[in-house]
Amino acid sequence: MKIPGDIKILGIFGDPIEHTLSPSIQNAAFNALSLNMVYLPFNVKNENLKEAVASIKALNMLGVNVTIPHKEAVMEFLDKVDEDAEKIGAVNTIVNRGGVLTGYNTDGEGYIESLTQETAFEVSNKNILMLGAGGAARGILYALLKRNPSKITIANRTIERAENLKAEFSKFFPEATINITGTNKIESIETFDLIINTTSSGMSGTEETKLIVEPKNFKKDAVVSEIIYKPMETPLLIEAEKNGLRLHKGLGMLIHQGALGFKLWTGKDAPVEAMRSAALVSLEAR
Ligand SMILES: NC(=O)c1ccc[n+]([C@@H]2O[C@H](COP(=O)([O-])OP(=O)(O)OC[C@H]3O[C@@H](n4cnc5c(N)ncnc54)[C@H](OP(=O)(O)O)[C@@H]3O)[C@@H](O)[C@H]2O)c1
């Protein structure tokens, strides 16, 4: 590997970090466009987060991604936070512009970009069911609400968490219709145009659980959207495919949140297909 003396350094801060696909995705993008940049994983413990953020300036890094568990905590150490990231309450991308660190959140917009490109689904005026109210749900909900769906139902196992999310986001979108329900009490399942799973139910390594919703009861032209990418074919997607429904898989969100970060750091459009191929190779190697 050739490392020129003037190479620009980027990376990702998280804990744990060994399984991240982001270095494969970003380095593939730098290679595809022959950019003099390298992207590295950094295991950052909670107690070292402040120093790690300061090191972005000290080491003249171009920027970093931030992942679990630092997306919220990192905000207080930044010079500026983009308005949307502030409202979402989480940052996944930091850009260093001449020693000024600005935080962004590209998760929700990355999700929408992937949904649009892969299924052509338009959120405006649609009736949407979002399963889950955890960290990933926040950016997705925010990006959906910006596009004026007719209604969003948030179904979560712990109903208080969904209620809190509604209360927080209703302040920013007072016109929006947001319903809350438990995952075991979802009604009128046949009326939703888009069903998104943002829970970790179905993820590799989690217990085999019953499907939260049954695709056989969905509207025939509904899109079934998953944000889990390991496995690529989750039980929900497998069942949805058997029922002839339109599918949106989870890897696209990961690629497109990275593509938006790439654009913020480099000012260039990301080579999305090179990034996707690199992610697939890394996933298959596991
Ligand atoms: N594609 C991407 O780029 C991307 C990005 C971020 C995350 N993800 C994936 O998204 C998933 C969620 O991540 P997160 O950061 O939001 O996690 P999180 O903050 O821990 O939230 C987990 C959510 O899943 C629910 N849940 C967990 N197990 C469940 C079960 N057995 N039945 C029903 N609900 C269950 C939780 O409900 P309670 O509130 O009741 O606990 C909560 O709503 C993970 O699989 C992660 O890998 C993908």
Order of helices and strands: EHEHEEHEEHEHEHEEEHEHH
Alpha-carbon Rg, integer: 19 Å
CATH hierarchy: architecture of the largest domain: 3-Layer(aba) Sandwich
Widest sheet: strand ordering = 2-1-3-5-6-4
- The CATH topology of the largest domain comes to Rossmann fold
DSSP strand (E) fraction?
A: 15-25%
Q: What would CATH call the homologous superfamily of the largest domain?
A: NAD(P)-binding Rossmann-like Domain
Query: What does the main sheet amount to?
Result: 6 strands, mixed
Annotation, overall tally of beta strands: 12
In the CATH scheme, the class of the largest domain would be: Alpha Beta
> Low-confidence parts lasting 5 or more residues at pLDDT below 50?
none
Class by helix and strand content? alpha/beta
The termini sit apart by: 23 Å
Approximately how much helix is present in the residues? 25-40%
Q: Total domains, how many?
A: 2
List ligands, each type once: NADP nicotinamide-adenine-dinucleotide phosphate
Number of helices: 9
Mean pLDDT, all residues: 96
- Apparent shape: globular
Descriptive report:
The strands form two sheets. Strands 2-1-3-5-6-4 form a six-stranded mixed sheet, with helices on both faces. Helices cover 35% and strands 20% of the residues. It has helices spanning 22-32, 49-58, 83-88, 107-119, 135-145, 159-170, 235-242, 251-266, 272-284; strands spanning 8-14, 37-43, 63-66, 80-81, 93-97, 100-104, 127-131, 151-156, 178-182, 194-197, 223-226, 246-248. With 286 residues, it is α/β, with parallel strands linked by helices. NADP nicotinamide-adenine-dinucleotide phosphate binds at residues 132-137, 156-158, 161, 183, 198-201, 203, 209, 212, 227-229, 250, 253-254, 257.
